[in-house]
Amino acid sequence: MAIGTRSSGLTAMASTVLRGSGIDPDRDIQPILLDRARDGPAMVLDGRAAALWGGSLVWPGFRTLASAPGSARFFGPPRQAIDRILALSPSLRRVTVPADSFPGQRVAFETVGSWSFIIARPGLDRAAVSRLVQAIDRARGALARHLPQGQDSDPRNLAAAVPARWLHPATASFLQEAGVP
Predict the structure, then answer these.
(1) Contact 77/112 with Cβ under 8 angstroms?
(2) Cβ(109)–Cβ(76) below 8 Å
(3) Which residue in 44, 47, 142, 143 has the most C-beta neighbors within 10 A?
(4) Burial 70-93 (b: 16+ CB within 10 A, else e)
């Protein structure tokens, strides 16, 4: 299974989801770490990989496979595994991929995903974080019009998505001013 690049957050997420599903990624599959994420679809199409891990309703790798002859089969973790996966990672959430999100995908399916958030080094300038959070807030309507998952790119979602201690003080201030508990 092509699980992503060495430094990708998706690769770390793959490990969590596989473990929560009862699959040991070091023993039960042959993980393929990619030099470039764009290499994954070609590896599936030519048989060097049996499957492709990825994320997002607009992720190019999924689009490539769904549009290829023979199409693709999309699936999430088993329903009984989702709670175990969520317990392993507080930044993940239950997600429904609507039917027809991809060519040939006629049925909705349950999976896990993360909210849009940015992880930064400790001590990042408060003013810079404040400008970024405000810019994301101003752009959320445009994001929602252009990307299906853009509707979730609202800083207010962070209050329910991650523990308060994970928030940068500027983000916490923004949420407090926005009236988010």
Answers:
(1) yes
(2) yes
(3) 44
(4) eebebebbeeebbebbbeebebbb
Contact 64, 111 (CB under 8 A): no
pLDDT > 80? residue 96: yes
Q: Is residue 97 part of a domain?
A: yes
How many Å apart are CA 181 and CA 179, to the nearest integer? 6
Total domain count for the chain? 2
- Between CA 124 and CA 122 the distance in angstroms is 6
Q: Is the dihedral of CA 39, 75, 95, 150 positive or negative?
A: positive
Among all chains, which residue has been given the structure tokens 């962070």?
A: 158
First to last CA, the chain: 41
Q: What is the pTM of this model?
A: 0.72
Distance (Å, rounded) from C-alpha 154 to C-alpha 176? 14
Q: Domain span at residue 160?
A: 126-177
d(CA 94, CA 81): 11
CB atoms within 10 A of CB 156: 14
Q: Does the residue 14 lie in any domain?
A: yes
Same domain, 52 and 110: yes
CATH number at residue 96: 3.40.190.10
